[in-house]
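Q: Give me a backbone?
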Amino acid sequence: MNIASIDIGSNTVLLLITKYDNEHYLKTILNEYRSPRISHKLIYNQSIIETKINELMNVLIEYDNIIKKYHCEKILLVGTNALRVAKNSNSILDLVKSKLNFEINIIDGDNEARLSFLGTVYPYLSNPLSKIVIDIGGGSTEIIYGNNFDIKYVKSFNIGVVSLTEKFFIDIPPSLNQIDEAVHYLRAIFNEIRHTIDANSLLLAVAGTPTTLSCMKQGLKEYKEEMVDESILNSNEINNILEQLVKMTPKQILKKYGTVVKGREDLILAGTLILRTIMELLNCNKINVSSRGLRYGVVVDYIINELKRPIK
Protein backbone atom coordinates (compact mmCIF):
# COMPACT_ATOMS: atom_id res chain seq x y z
CA MET A 1 0.00 0.00 0.00
CA ASN A 2 1.10 3.58 -0.66
CA ILE A 3 1.01 5.94 2.31
CA ALA A 4 1.32 9.76 2.14
CA SER A 5 2.60 11.79 5.08
CA ILE A 6 2.50 15.60 5.25
CA ASP A 7 4.40 17.52 7.93
CA ILE A 8 3.07 21.09 8.27
CA GLY A 9 5.85 22.93 10.06
CA SER A 10 6.43 26.54 10.98
CA ASN A 11 8.66 27.13 7.96
CA THR A 12 8.24 24.15 5.66
CA VAL A 13 5.55 21.76 4.51
CA LEU A 14 6.97 18.35 3.63
CA LEU A 15 5.36 15.55 1.66
CA LEU A 16 6.51 11.94 1.86
CA ILE A 17 5.06 9.10 -0.18
CA THR A 18 6.07 5.59 0.86
CA LYS A 19 5.24 2.05 -0.15
CA TYR A 20 4.70 -0.57 2.56
CA ASP A 21 4.92 -3.97 0.89
CA ASN A 22 3.83 -7.50 1.74
CA GLU A 23 7.33 -8.29 3.01
CA HIS A 24 6.98 -5.52 5.64
CA TYR A 25 9.57 -3.24 4.03
CA LEU A 26 8.98 0.52 3.92
CA LYS A 27 10.26 2.11 0.74
CA THR A 28 10.53 5.82 -0.03
CA ILE A 29 8.86 6.75 -3.30
CA LEU A 30 8.87 10.55 -3.21
CA ASN A 31 9.87 13.51 -1.04
CA GLU A 32 8.67 17.06 -1.74
CA TYR A 33 9.56 20.26 0.08
CA ARG A 34 7.94 23.71 0.08
CA SER A 35 8.51 26.76 2.31
CA PRO A 36 5.33 28.81 2.90
CA ARG A 37 6.65 29.84 6.36
CA ILE A 38 3.25 30.08 8.03
CA SER A 39 4.86 31.26 11.28
CA HIS A 40 6.03 34.55 9.75
CA LYS A 41 5.57 37.27 12.41
CA LEU A 42 3.47 34.83 14.43
CA ILE A 43 3.20 35.56 18.15
CA TYR A 44 1.66 33.15 20.67
CA ASN A 45 -2.15 33.21 20.54
CA GLN A 46 -2.17 35.50 17.52
CA SER A 47 -3.33 34.58 14.02
CA ILE A 48 -1.47 33.17 11.07
CA ILE A 49 -1.82 35.91 8.45
CA GLU A 50 -4.10 35.50 5.44
CA THR A 51 -1.32 35.52 2.84
CA LYS A 52 0.42 32.64 4.61
CA ILE A 53 -2.83 30.68 4.84
CA ASN A 54 -3.22 31.10 1.08
CA GLU A 55 0.35 29.92 0.51
CA LEU A 56 -0.28 26.89 2.70
CA MET A 57 -3.46 26.04 0.79
CA ASN A 58 -1.62 26.30 -2.54
CA VAL A 59 1.00 23.84 -1.28
CA LEU A 60 -1.63 21.42 -0.01
CA ILE A 61 -3.58 21.60 -3.27
CA GLU A 62 -0.36 20.79 -5.15
CA TYR A 63 0.35 17.90 -2.77
CA ASP A 64 -3.19 16.59 -3.14
CA ASN A 65 -2.66 16.26 -6.90
CA ILE A 66 0.61 14.40 -6.32
CA ILE A 67 -1.00 12.07 -3.77
CA LYS A 68 -3.79 11.21 -6.23
CA LYS A 69 -1.21 10.47 -8.90
CA TYR A 70 0.39 7.86 -6.65
CA HIS A 71 -2.95 6.37 -5.55
CA CYS A 72 -2.20 6.60 -1.83
CA GLU A 73 -4.49 4.50 0.33
CA LYS A 74 -3.76 6.47 3.50
CA ILE A 75 -3.01 10.17 4.00
CA LEU A 76 -1.53 11.32 7.31
CA LEU A 77 -1.14 15.00 8.16
CA VAL A 78 0.40 16.54 11.27
CA GLY A 79 0.72 20.18 12.30
CA THR A 80 3.42 21.40 14.68
CA ASN A 81 4.42 24.57 16.50
CA ALA A 82 2.80 27.26 14.34
CA LEU A 83 -0.57 25.52 14.37
CA ARG A 84 -0.15 24.78 18.08
CA VAL A 85 0.18 28.44 19.04
CA ALA A 86 -1.99 30.25 16.47
CA LYS A 87 -5.46 31.29 17.64
CA ASN A 88 -6.95 30.70 14.19
CA SER A 89 -5.73 27.08 13.92
CA ASN A 90 -9.23 25.62 14.07
CA SER A 91 -10.45 27.77 11.20
CA ILE A 92 -7.43 26.68 9.12
CA LEU A 93 -8.18 23.04 9.89
CA ASP A 94 -11.81 23.58 8.86
CA LEU A 95 -10.71 25.28 5.63
CA VAL A 96 -8.36 22.41 4.72
CA LYS A 97 -11.06 19.88 5.55
CA SER A 98 -13.70 21.63 3.45
CA LYS A 99 -11.44 22.22 0.43
CA LEU A 100 -9.40 19.01 0.37
CA ASN A 101 -11.01 16.63 2.88
CA PHE A 102 -7.65 16.45 4.70
CA GLU A 103 -7.68 15.88 8.46
CA ILE A 104 -4.77 17.68 10.14
CA ASN A 105 -3.69 16.31 13.51
CA ILE A 106 -2.05 19.06 15.58
CA ILE A 107 0.43 17.26 17.81
CA ASP A 108 2.01 18.56 21.01
CA GLY A 109 5.75 19.07 21.34
CA ASP A 110 6.45 15.82 23.16
CA ASN A 111 4.56 13.76 20.59
CA GLU A 112 6.33 15.61 17.80
CA ALA A 113 9.64 14.69 19.42
CA ARG A 114 8.61 11.04 19.85
CA LEU A 115 7.56 10.72 16.22
CA SER A 116 10.69 12.50 14.97
CA PHE A 117 12.79 10.07 16.99
CA LEU A 118 10.86 7.09 15.65
CA GLY A 119 11.22 8.23 12.05
CA THR A 120 14.92 8.97 12.41
CA VAL A 121 16.23 5.94 14.32
CA TYR A 122 14.45 3.07 12.60
CA PRO A 123 17.20 2.68 9.93
CA TYR A 124 19.74 2.42 12.80
CA LEU A 125 18.01 -0.28 14.86
CA SER A 126 20.97 -2.65 14.46
CA ASN A 127 23.32 -0.12 16.06
CA PRO A 128 23.62 -0.99 19.79
CA LEU A 129 24.39 2.56 20.90
CA SER A 130 21.76 4.81 22.42
CA LYS A 131 20.63 7.57 20.09
CA ILE A 132 20.23 11.32 20.44
CA VAL A 133 17.99 12.97 17.84
CA ILE A 134 18.05 16.74 17.28
CA ASP A 135 15.10 18.09 15.27
CA ILE A 136 15.47 21.81 14.59
CA GLY A 137 12.22 23.26 13.33
CA GLY A 138 10.94 26.73 12.54
CA GLY A 139 9.31 27.46 15.89
CA SER A 140 10.67 24.74 18.17
CA THR A 141 13.57 22.34 18.60
CA GLU A 142 13.07 18.78 19.81
CA ILE A 143 15.78 16.75 21.53
CA ILE A 144 15.15 13.07 22.16
CA TYR A 145 17.40 10.48 23.79
CA GLY A 146 16.78 6.76 23.92
CA ASN A 147 17.65 3.28 22.78
CA ASN A 148 15.64 2.61 19.65
CA PHE A 149 11.96 2.64 20.70
CA ASP A 150 12.77 3.05 24.41
CA ILE A 151 12.79 6.83 24.89
CA LYS A 152 14.53 8.03 28.07
CA TYR A 153 14.41 11.80 27.60
CA VAL A 154 12.28 13.98 25.38
CA LYS A 155 11.74 17.72 25.33
CA SER A 156 10.43 20.31 22.93
CA PHE A 157 12.26 23.61 23.36
CA ASN A 158 10.31 26.69 22.28
CA ILE A 159 12.94 28.07 19.92
CA GLY A 160 13.57 27.36 16.25
CA VAL A 161 15.14 28.93 13.19
CA VAL A 162 12.29 31.35 12.48
CA SER A 163 11.72 32.39 16.08
CA LEU A 164 15.46 32.83 16.79
CA THR A 165 15.93 34.87 13.61
CA GLU A 166 12.97 37.14 14.36
CA LYS A 167 14.04 37.53 18.00
CA PHE A 168 17.70 38.44 17.48
CA PHE A 169 18.63 39.03 13.84
CA ILE A 170 16.97 42.24 12.72
CA ASP A 171 19.67 42.57 10.09
CA ILE A 172 21.43 39.79 8.21
CA PRO A 173 24.35 39.67 8.45
CA PRO A 174 23.83 40.45 12.13
CA SER A 175 26.14 42.41 14.36
CA LEU A 176 28.60 40.60 16.63
CA ASN A 177 26.54 41.77 19.59
CA GLN A 178 23.38 40.17 18.15
CA ILE A 179 25.22 36.88 17.63
CA ASP A 180 26.62 36.96 21.18
CA GLU A 181 23.16 37.61 22.60
CA ALA A 182 21.67 34.78 20.55
CA VAL A 183 24.36 32.31 21.61
CA HIS A 184 23.99 33.29 25.28
CA TYR A 185 20.23 32.80 24.99
CA LEU A 186 20.61 29.39 23.33
CA ARG A 187 23.06 28.14 25.93
CA ALA A 188 20.64 29.06 28.69
CA ILE A 189 17.69 27.45 26.89
CA PHE A 190 19.45 24.13 26.20
CA ASN A 191 21.70 23.97 29.27
CA GLU A 192 19.75 21.16 30.95
CA ILE A 193 20.80 18.59 28.34
CA ARG A 194 24.33 18.65 29.74
CA HIS A 195 23.06 16.88 32.86
CA THR A 196 20.30 14.66 31.47
CA ILE A 197 21.74 13.03 28.33
CA ASP A 198 24.61 10.58 27.92
CA ALA A 199 26.75 12.12 25.20
CA ASN A 200 28.35 8.72 24.49
CA SER A 201 25.58 8.01 22.00
CA LEU A 202 24.93 8.10 18.28
CA LEU A 203 24.05 11.73 17.53
CA LEU A 204 21.52 12.21 14.71
CA ALA A 205 20.37 15.57 13.36
CA VAL A 206 17.25 15.80 11.25
CA ALA A 207 15.29 18.43 9.29
CA GLY A 208 16.32 21.34 7.10
CA THR A 209 19.29 22.74 8.99
CA PRO A 210 21.57 19.67 9.00
CA THR A 211 20.51 18.49 5.53
CA THR A 212 21.20 21.95 4.10
CA LEU A 213 24.56 22.15 5.89
CA SER A 214 25.47 18.75 4.44
CA CYS A 215 24.68 20.02 0.94
CA MET A 216 26.73 23.17 1.56
CA LYS A 217 29.68 21.11 2.79
CA GLN A 218 29.52 18.80 -0.24
CA GLY A 219 29.06 21.64 -2.72
CA LEU A 220 25.66 20.38 -3.84
CA LYS A 221 23.65 23.09 -5.57
CA GLU A 222 20.57 20.85 -5.69
CA TYR A 223 19.37 18.50 -2.98
CA LYS A 224 20.31 14.84 -3.46
CA GLU A 225 18.90 12.66 -0.71
CA GLU A 226 21.19 9.72 -1.46
CA MET A 227 24.22 11.95 -0.78
CA VAL A 228 22.76 13.66 2.28
CA ASP A 229 21.08 10.88 4.26
CA GLU A 230 23.58 9.30 6.69
CA SER A 231 26.30 11.82 5.79
CA ILE A 232 28.57 13.17 8.53
CA LEU A 233 29.20 16.73 9.70
CA ASN A 234 31.94 17.53 12.18
CA SER A 235 32.28 20.57 14.38
CA ASN A 236 35.13 22.08 12.33
CA GLU A 237 33.05 21.91 9.16
CA ILE A 238 30.09 23.52 10.90
CA ASN A 239 32.28 26.29 12.33
CA ASN A 240 33.83 26.95 8.91
CA ILE A 241 30.38 27.36 7.34
CA LEU A 242 29.28 29.54 10.25
CA GLU A 243 32.25 31.85 9.76
CA GLN A 244 31.02 32.49 6.21
CA LEU A 245 27.34 32.86 7.07
CA VAL A 246 27.88 35.57 9.69
CA LYS A 247 29.33 37.82 6.97
CA MET A 248 26.72 37.24 4.24
CA THR A 249 23.32 38.60 3.30
CA PRO A 250 20.53 36.18 2.35
CA LYS A 251 21.01 37.10 -1.32
CA GLN A 252 24.72 36.30 -1.09
CA ILE A 253 23.97 33.00 0.63
CA LEU A 254 21.48 32.04 -2.09
CA LYS A 255 23.90 33.01 -4.85
CA LYS A 256 26.80 31.08 -3.33
CA TYR A 257 24.99 27.89 -2.32
CA GLY A 258 22.17 27.65 -4.85
CA THR A 259 18.69 26.19 -4.63
CA VAL A 260 19.52 23.94 -1.66
CA VAL A 261 19.18 27.00 0.58
CA LYS A 262 16.16 28.54 -1.17
CA GLY A 263 13.54 29.34 1.47
CA ARG A 264 16.19 29.04 4.20
CA GLU A 265 18.73 31.63 3.09
CA ASP A 266 17.73 34.00 5.91
CA LEU A 267 17.32 31.16 8.45
CA ILE A 268 20.33 28.89 7.98
CA LEU A 269 22.50 31.07 10.23
CA ALA A 270 20.07 30.63 13.12
CA GLY A 271 19.83 26.90 12.50
CA THR A 272 23.59 26.53 12.43
CA LEU A 273 23.91 28.39 15.73
CA ILE A 274 21.28 26.14 17.34
CA LEU A 275 22.98 22.98 16.09
CA ARG A 276 26.46 24.10 17.14
CA THR A 277 25.24 25.12 20.61
CA ILE A 278 23.63 21.73 21.21
CA MET A 279 26.73 19.90 20.01
CA GLU A 280 28.93 21.98 22.31
CA LEU A 281 26.71 21.33 25.33
CA LEU A 282 26.80 17.60 24.60
CA ASN A 283 30.56 17.75 23.96
CA CYS A 284 30.05 16.02 20.60
CA ASN A 285 32.27 16.82 17.65
CA LYS A 286 30.31 15.09 14.89
CA ILE A 287 26.75 14.34 13.88
CA ASN A 288 25.05 11.92 11.53
CA VAL A 289 22.68 13.73 9.18
CA SER A 290 19.26 12.20 8.63
CA SER A 291 16.81 13.18 5.90
CA ARG A 292 13.93 11.41 7.64
CA GLY A 293 12.36 12.60 10.89
CA LEU A 294 8.75 13.50 11.66
CA ARG A 295 7.05 12.65 8.37
CA TYR A 296 8.66 9.19 8.45
CA GLY A 297 7.82 8.74 12.13
CA VAL A 298 4.14 9.38 11.42
CA VAL A 299 4.15 6.54 8.89
CA VAL A 300 6.14 4.16 11.11
CA ASP A 301 3.81 4.90 14.04
CA TYR A 302 0.75 4.27 11.87
CA ILE A 303 2.07 0.90 10.65
CA ILE A 304 3.21 -0.29 14.09
CA ASN A 305 0.41 1.06 16.28
CA GLU A 306 -2.59 1.31 13.94
CA LEU A 307 -2.04 -1.52 11.49
CA LYS A 308 -0.23 -3.60 14.14
CA ARG A 309 2.35 -4.73 11.62
CA PRO A 310 6.16 -4.91 11.78
CA ILE A 311 8.67 -2.90 9.77
CA LYS A 312 11.93 -4.28 8.44
Notes: The domain at 2-109+294-306 is CATH 3.30.420.40 (Nucleotidyltransferase; domain 5). The chain has a mean pLDDT of 92. The CA atoms of residues 169 and 175 lie 8 Å apart. The chain has two domains: 2-109+294-306, 125-290.
